[in-house]
Design goal:
Oligomer: heterodimer
Radius of gyration of chain A: 24 Å
Number of strands of chain A: 0
Low-confidence stretches of chain B: 1-15
Number of helices of chain A: 13
Structural class of chain B: mainly alpha
Distance between the termini of chain A: 39 Å
Shape of chain A: globular
Strand content of chain A: under 5%
Order of helices and strands of chain B: HHHHHHHHHHHHH
Mean pLDDT of chain B: 89
Mean pLDDT of chain A: 90
Structural class of chain A: mainly alpha
Largest interface: A-B, 93 and 107 residues
Largest sheet of chain A: none
Radius of gyration of chain B: 25 Å
Largest sheet of chain B: none
Helix content of chain A: over 70%
Low-confidence stretches of chain A: 1-8
Helix content of chain B: over 70%
Number of strands of chain B: 0
Shape of chain B: globular
Chain lengths: 277, 293
């Protein structure tokens, strides 16, 4: 009778809650929250119209378009090939599988500047890959395609590592049921497996997309950084900072974060809609 | 077997192993596509680093690592990681203790805040400290008046590194400690142990592999961070250049052997990190957080 009036769980007997939470909040505020507040508040000195004027400069718009567009293309490439890699790693056996599995995390571990110089060396007109593509008229290094290549490198593990565990936990009996009910293998994959892993794929897509939009180190070497053509938004922040245009740099940063936030929100809603069906 | 791969088009058929497997040629094709993709985008860049670094022979390689600027960059990278990683280690353990072992309102909001640095561009991670401590930043005039330099100096590099590695330990420990619950700690306390004894003898042994995992990842990021550090460093050779920044400077000076020699050290660090991480996952996978995201 009285049980419902008692707290759901007895208060913990463990010590140290107050000091632990206090320290965590203080550290979080100093390292993360206060600096981010400075970022959000700084463009205020420009005023609203000043903020709009900064983020609609042709050079800023071009940079934002490149950062988001290239990331979208690279993430789409990764959604397809990352899914294949995850599938192969979970379902099939082949020699060296464990090494390939470990290698997938390389972009997490390899410093972005190292990836940048290595990719540039490969795709420059005299590089191992550039040498093949150059005669065909395909220029990768120092063009927007180079930006996409770098972002494919950076984004791959996000897709593989979010899809892989879901694929692993997938109950094979459902596939057997589908097959025994007369579904072809292709129908089973499209109607049974794909819907089951779609939420994870969307999560991986969102993570890779967000990372790609903000990526700097691996991109600036291979991009060529031509204003209006192959100049990414994070580089524009660096350039504005070098000119001591703090408010302008912060405005570009806020614009990037806002667009990212809206994109992630849309992906989140998509996921909810998918789950609710 | 091959004859069985085609299930009858109509009517329930007995589910055979072949009916839920792809034909052999599809399997081989998918494996080939996956491997070629990994080879092209992951392995080839890694190989290129070492080939370029050794392109003029081992002597030139070793010589490229010996200039004082290169040594200073290596020292600074080690110093920054040696400060940033322990800071976030302590924060991660303390925050995970509060979040995983107690229930309070605002807990999930706190977790979201802890994850924030991962969703911020590295350049913005550096920018925020310039906005605070730069010459025209919030605290800039005060810092100048008191002769304290943070931006374009080592403290700024350390702060930016702490920011980008902020979530690693905490996000590894929070789900792990949540899975483990509080029974063991409660038992220790009821047997007369005090809070510290309980933490050192019960909690810490339970989370040590997860802790190591988090430290490994944050160390790799701390030593390799480029964007955030680049914004706050000022690129003063021999003083505020970390290894990744030194790679950039040498590369822009067309000193490719030098750039790739320093880059190869960072690539080795990445490989060692991957090997240790895989070992931890294979050997102690059950003692790491199962619900890591």
């Amino acid at each position: 009778m009285f049980a419902r009036f008692l707290p759901r769980r007895a208060p913990s007997v463990l010590p140290g809650f107050g000091p632990a939470l206090g320290f965590a909040l203080a550290y979080l505020s100093i390292i993360v929250l206060m600096p981010l507040a400075a970022l959000v508040l700084r463009p205020a000195e420009l005023g609203f119209s000043g903020f709009i004027a900064v983020v609609t400069q042709p050079r800023v718009l071009a940079a934002l378009r490149l950062s988001f567009g290239a990331s979208l293309i690279a993430t789409s490439v990764n959604a397809v090939f990352g899914l294949i890699v995850a599938w192969v790693l979970v379902r099939y056996n082949f020699p060296g599988k464990r090494i390939v599995d470990a290698l997938v995390d390389l972009p997490f571990a390899l410093p972005t500047a190292v990836a940048g110089v290595a990719l540039t060396a490969l795709y420059a007109p005299n590089g191992w890959i550039g040498r093949i593509l150059h005669p065909l008229g395909i220029e990768v290094a120092f063009t927007p395609i180079g930006v996409v290549v770098a972002l494919v490198f950076i984004g791959l593990p996000f897709v593989v590592r979010t899809v892989q565990p879901v694929l692993q936990d997938l109950d094979r009996e459902v596939e057997e049921a589908a097959a025994s009910l007369g579904a072809s293998r292709w129908q089973t994959i499209v109607r049974v497996i794909l819907p089951a892993i779609l939420p994870a794929l969307l999560t991986g897509f969102a993570l890779a997309l967000a990372r790609g939009v903000g990526e700097y180190g691996s991109v600036i070497f291979i991009a060529g950084n031509m204003p209006l053509v192959s100049e990414i938004a994070p580089l524009l922040i660096v350039i504005k900072l070098e000119q001591y245009d703090y408010a302008g740099a912060a405005a570009v940063g806020v614009a990037m974060l806002s667009i990212s936030f809206v994109m992630l929100l849309v992906l989140n809603l998509l996921q909810r809609w998918h789950r609710g069906r | 077997m091959a004859a069985e791969t085609k299930a009858p088009a109509s009517g329930p058929a007995p589910a055979s192993a072949a009916a839920i497997d792809e034909p052999a040629w599809v399997r081989r094709l998918l494996i080939a596509v996956g491997l070629v993709f990994i080879g092209l985008f992951l392995v080839l860049p890694l190989v290129a680093v070492f080939v370029e670094a050794l392109s003029n022979g081992i002597g030139a390689y070793l010589a490229a690592l010996r200039p004082p600027d290169a040594l200073a960059a290596i020292r600074l990278t080690l110093l920054v990681a040696a400060i940033a990683v322990p800071c976030n280690l302590i924060f991660g353990v303390v925050a995970a203790w509060a979040i995983a072992k107690f229930e309070f309102t605002g807990r999930s909001l706190l977790i979201t805040f802890i994850d924030l640095p991962f969703s911020v561009s590295p350049v913005i991670s550096g920018l925020v400290y310039v906005l605070l401590f730069g010459a025209h930043g919030w605290f800039g005039p005060w810092l100048v008046a008191n002769n304290v330099q943070i931006i374009f100096a080592v403290p700024g590099i350390v702060l930016a590194t702490i920011f980008v590695t902020f979530p690693f330990v905490a996000r590894e420990l929070i789900p792990l400690m949540q899975e483990q619950g509080t029974e063991e700690e409660e038992a220790a306390l009821s047997l007369g142990a005090n809070g510290w004894q309980t933490f050192w003898r019960v909690t810490l042994p339970n989370i040590k592999w997860g802790l190591l995992y988090g430290v490994l990842l944050s160390n790799a990021r701390a030593m390799g961070e480029f964007g955030a550090v680049s914004v706050v460093s000022g690129h003063i050779r021999g003083l505020t250049n970390t290894m990744p920044l030194h790679v950039e400077i040498l590369y822009n000076e067309y000193n490719f052997v030098g750039a790739f020699a320093v880059a190869s050290l960072l690539a080795l660090l990445a490989l060692v990190t991957l090997v240790l991480k895989s070992l931890l996952e294979w050997r102690f996978g059950h003692e790491l957080a199962a619900s890591r995201h």
